[in-house]
Amino acid sequence: MMRALSTAASGMDAQQTRLDVTANNIANVSTPGFKRVRAEFAEILVDVERTPGAATSANTTSPVGIEVGMGARTMGTSRLHSQGDMQQSENPLDLAIEGPGFFPIRTASGEINYTRDGTFKTDAEGRIVTSRGEPLATDITLPEDTLEINISADGIVTARVPGEVVPVEAGRIELASFANPAGLVALGGNMYRETTASGQPVLGAPGENGTGGVTQHMLEISNVKIIEEMVDLIAGQRAYEVNARVIKAADEMLQQAVNVR
After folding, report:
1. How far is the CA of 231 from the CAs of 60, 81, 166, 228, in angstroms?
2. Domain ranges (residues) in the chain
3. Which tens digit of pLDDT belongs to each residue from 131-165?
């Protein structure tokens, strides 16, 4: 009975983590470039009272063993980097990556972080920056009197300025690819940082080194499927309730044992 209490409690804790992850996915269903997270679980320990094949007498062995699990625990939260749906935009600096890859972003401290969020803007100096004002790692600056911006699928940024027939090339957007994108650590604000699990970034033009192309006037929205999340939410809630009932049943059995005269 005491083991049932701790086992069910571990199940409730695991389902709480599952519900927390699902709630965060639902909250970010409209966040550009957000990648849904999946909680993964494993059995904690197994109490082996008798192994399969153990001797039951001088001439016989047991075809099965006696094993009792001791609950569940969260092994990790895996971020699924599948392609999100595309949404058209009128902003010429809204960019979507069609395929693998990340935009390298230079932070105020000089570090390089990575994002799939392509909602770019220009700052007072004409640099292409994120919504937080952090520039692309390639530091692309548009002319002050730019009339029109054009960004090709391979990342070349050109600007049309007054008095010039041929557009001026302002720079080229690079993308970063990783051997294991799931190993990136999320920093919030749609940003990721490399880790030893993700591997070193491989930089190159869009379409190179296994990266996708860049599409202008488009945004990649979250890859969260609201119906799937709602089903997972209900399943997690029911599993939590069942574990709570196990605790209640074990408590009642323990009470009966205590009241035995």
Report:
1. 48, 20, 54, 5
2. 2-80+224-258, 86-220
3. 999 999 998 999 988 999 999 999 999 999 988 88
